[in-house]
Known about the structure:
- By secondary structure, the protein is mostly helical.
- The protein has a domain at 8-96.
- Helices cover 52% and strands 0% of the residues.
- It has helices spanning 8-25, 35-54, 61-68, 76-92, 99-111, 153-159.
Amino acid sequence: xxxxxxxxxxxxxxxxxxxxxxxxxxxxxxxxxxxxxxxxxxxxxxxxxxxxxxxxxxxxxxxxxxxxxxxxxxxxxxxxxxxxxxxxxxxxxxxxxxxxxxxxxxxxxxxxxxxxxxxxxxxxxxxxxxxxxxxxxxxxxxxxxxxxxxxxxxxxxxxxx
Length: 161
């Protein structure tokens, strides 16, 4: 399962439904307060946080890398709040479109193929110590235009090997 064109809230609801189904077929989590049970609950939440973050759209890659690299790791609710906030910021900046508006644009472009699509708005300047001029995000490590090299998840993953 991937986020695709779903909103963050819709995608989280889908993931929660899957997690509830998985919980119903496995052994119930003990309400016990023993250290082992607490550790099991923390491990489950950590897995679900990484599961949720790893299945988000590419536009959230920079935020995903920041959240995954935090020690101690963020809770699922903290991650959800941060991703909701980022979604709102990206929508307000015109860098993220909802599924309803993107389907309308796709329908318009298919009806009039002779009309060129409107130019894309430039991405905001990268806020990193690398200075990346030009006002566009671009990673020199993996080549993606959704983040800068300092926040490259692939680079961090390769370094840890």
